[in-house]
């Protein structure tokens, strides 16, 4: 029997994914169109069944984002959203779902009085965030942030692209905690009409690693969520489809809650399909 007495306890994020498998992870940009609105939208996503919620901290050069999220970031910056305003928002939030911040490395590095990642991580932990996603931070250069996150009990989530393999994949998976953010397709974020075949290939490539895998980039419908879970993911990540609601709905909070419910139902449907398939698989004949 393996002695797990010294194993690190699961984080809030990993627990949320494993206990709610399949998990729904939702994203909105903080401050779009205002921090007060963001608070209502986060609460709506929480009511709708989100198991984790990512909050985008606006940055002026969001290289991983498509046009939809870039527009949201611009609206948030135009509204005067600042890092401290963001943290005050998080201070005020009370959700069942753990919260993560998604932002860019320079924002983290420049938060304090001098370039250093620790003041940002300390403030994130103080506000009650559970993890950080940094799209432009290579795993090979992540040690200072990784150590700061470890010291303050935060997960550091990395994005795994469809082209990531070999030594680079090993480096990422040795650094990641909470979950692996599996990029469904090459390019930037944005809602799509279908699920990329790269999703299935990426999940197969990551199957040997004992960390939850959640797929994002292009997920917008319940059927997408079902297909991704059927392909072996532990969770789905949805952002641009929710930003579209924020930008275009007459009642964003109600529509965000309804969209989260739809996406969660789709994810659960995918998991149920896996269970049915497993039950229908015939037992091998005994010799």
From TrEMBL:
GO molecular function, one term: tryptophan synthase activity
Keyword presence, Amino-acid biosynthesis: yes
Chain coiled-coil ranges: none
Active site (catalytic residues): 54 (proton acceptor), 65 (proton acceptor)
Pathway(s) served: Amino-acid biosynthesis; L-tryptophan biosynthesis; L-tryptophan from chorismate: step 5/5
PROSITE patterns: TRP_SYNTHASE_ALPHA
One Pfam short name: Trp_syntA
Catalysed reactions, as listed in the record: (1S,2R)-1-C-(indol-3-yl)glycerol 3-phosphate + L-serine = D-glyceraldehyde 3-phosphate + L-tryptophan + H2O
Keywords recorded for this protein, A-Z: Amino-acid biosynthesis, Aromatic amino acid biosynthesis, Lyase, Tryptophan biosynthesis
InterPro entries, per database record: Aldolase_TIM, RibuloseP-bd_barrel, Trp_synthase_alpha_AS, Trp_synthase_suA
Function recorded in the entry: The alpha subunit is responsible for the aldol cleavage of indoleglycerol phosphate to indole and glyceraldehyde 3-phosphate.
HAMAP family on file: Trp_synth_alpha (MF_00131)
The protein's assembly and partners: Tetramer of two alpha and two beta chains.
Protein name in the entry: Tryptophan synthase alpha chain
Source organism: Haloterrigena salifodinae
């Amino acid at each position: 029997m393996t002695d797990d007495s010294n194993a690190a306890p699961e984080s809030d994020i990993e627990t949320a994914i494993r206990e709610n498998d399949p998990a729904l992870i939702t994203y909105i940009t903080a401050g779009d169109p205002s921090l007060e609105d963001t608070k209502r939208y986060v609460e709506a996503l929480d009511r709708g069944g989100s198991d984790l919620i990512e909050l985008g901290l606006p940055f002026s050069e969001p290289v991983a984002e498509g046009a939809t999220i870039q527009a949201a970031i611009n609206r948030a910056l135009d509204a005067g959203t600042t890092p401290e305003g963001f943290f005050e928002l998080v201070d005020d939030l009370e959700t069942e779902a753990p919260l993560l911040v998604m932002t860019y490395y320079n924002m983290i590095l420049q938060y304090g009085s001098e370039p250093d990642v620790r003041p940002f991580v300390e403030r994130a932990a103080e506000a009650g965030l559970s993890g950080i996603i940094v799209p432009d931070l290579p795993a090979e250069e992540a040690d200072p942030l990784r150590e700061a996150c470890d010291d303050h009990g935060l997960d550091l989530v990395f994005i795994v692209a469809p082209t990531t393999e070999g030594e680079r994949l090993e480096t990422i998976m040795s650094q990641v905690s909470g979950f692996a953010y599996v990029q469904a397709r090459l390019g930037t974020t944005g809602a799509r009409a279908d699920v990329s075949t790269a999703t299935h290939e990426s999940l197969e490539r990551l199957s040997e690693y004992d960390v939850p895998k959640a797929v994002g980039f292009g997920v917008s419908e319940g059927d997408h969520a079902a297909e991704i879970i059927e392909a072996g993911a532990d969770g789905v990540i949805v952002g641009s489809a929710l930003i579209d609601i924020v930008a275009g709905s007459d009642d964003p909070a109600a529509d965000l809650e309804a969209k989260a419910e739809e996406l969660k139902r789709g994810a659960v449907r995918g998991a149920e399909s896996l269970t049915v398939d497993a039950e229908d698989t015939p037992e091998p004949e005994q010799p």
